[in-house]
Amino acid sequence: MEHSVREEGAVLVAAFQGEVDLENSPKAREVLLECVGRGRKVLVDLSGVTYIDSSGVASLVEAFQRARKSGLEFGLVSVNSSALRVLELARLDKVFPIHATLADGL
Amino acid sequence: MGDRILQLRFRADAGKLKQVRRSVRESVRACGATEACADDVVMAVDEVCQNIIRHAYGGSGRGEIVLEIERSDDALVFRVTDFAPRVDPASVRPRDLDDVRPGGLGTHLIQQVMDSAEFIDPPPGCGNLFRMVKRIG
């Protein structure tokens, strides 16, 4: 798994690539919580994620809930079919704001 | 009993799972599973192994997992064995999805994508044996 965080105006965009699994989801969690801790809207770009397991999804849920508690927006963008299937099976596709493109989410 | 298409024995460590997923995908694709079916069984095996690593072995990175996959006429049969203390099957039931919170999704995902998934009696000398079936074409 690789990741990057960049600013798009007032929004933080955390982008992940590769496989988000039990080995590296603690790092994903750390990155996401750090973004939320900066007190800005966060968009998570999943376009490069080829696999995400339940531990990766748990990291997304935790960051989303922390953002909501702080009154911050938190959404997913460019979710590919593989990751979307996991979110659908977990019935989280209706919980997260999901945007087709980064431009839609900004 | 069907034809064995894969047998793996590996350390119960998160760092091993990427290779396990790759091996499972290659094996089931080679015996005719569709890409979508392969996606499902790879996820299910990964989630079972995670449960073993995190809960049965307590995340110690010690212990071993044995994965066997057999192909029968119309199904793939998966057996995942560990050597940890016996797990109470009631403790790994899927949780209520309406209660949105991190964690606890693995068992739900397994049950969603497999045709059956359950603990069965392990052979002597083993800790737990989880058996899953996925019907194919």
Element order of chain A: H for helix, E for strand? EEHEHEHEH
The overall pLDDT of chain B, averaged over residues, is 91
Poorly predicted parts of chain A: none
Distance from N terminus to C terminus of chain A (CA atoms, Å) equals 24 Å
pLDDT < 50 runs, ≥5 residues of chain B:
none
Biggest pleated sheet of chain A: 5 strands, mixed
Strand order of the largest sheet of chain A: 1-2-3-4-5
- What about the largest sheet of chain B? 5 strands, antiparallel
Radius of gyration of chain B: 14 Å
CATH architecture of chain B: 2-Layer Sandwich
Number of self-contained structural domains of chain B: 1
- Multimeric status of the protein: heterodimer
**Helix proportion range of chain A:** 25-40%
Relevant CATH superfamily of chain B: Histidine kinase-like ATPase, C-terminal domain
> Order of strands side by side in the largest beta sheet of chain B?
1-2-3-5-4
Helix fraction of chain B by DSSP (H/I, runs of at least 4): 25-40%
Order of helices and strands of chain B: EHHEEHEE
Number of strands of chain B: 5
Structural class by helix and strand composition of chain A: alpha/beta
Kindly state the mean pLDDT of chain A as a whole number? 96
Account of the protein in words:
The complex is a heterodimer of chains A (106) and B (137). With 106 residues, chain A is an alpha/beta fold. Chain A has helices at residues 25-37, 54-69, 81-89, 102-105; strands at residues 2-8, 11-20, 42-52, 74-77, 98-99. A five-stranded mixed β-sheet of chain A has the order 1-2-3-4-5. The model of chain A has no long low-confidence stretch (mean pLDDT 96). Chain B is 32% helix and 28% strand. Chain B is α+β, with helices and mostly antiparallel strands and 137 residues long. Chain B has one domain: Heat Shock Protein 90 (2-Layer Sandwich). The two termini of chain B are 18 Å apart. Chain B has a five-stranded antiparallel β-sheet. In chain B, helix 1 packs antiparallel against helix 2 and helix 2 packs antiparallel against helix 3.
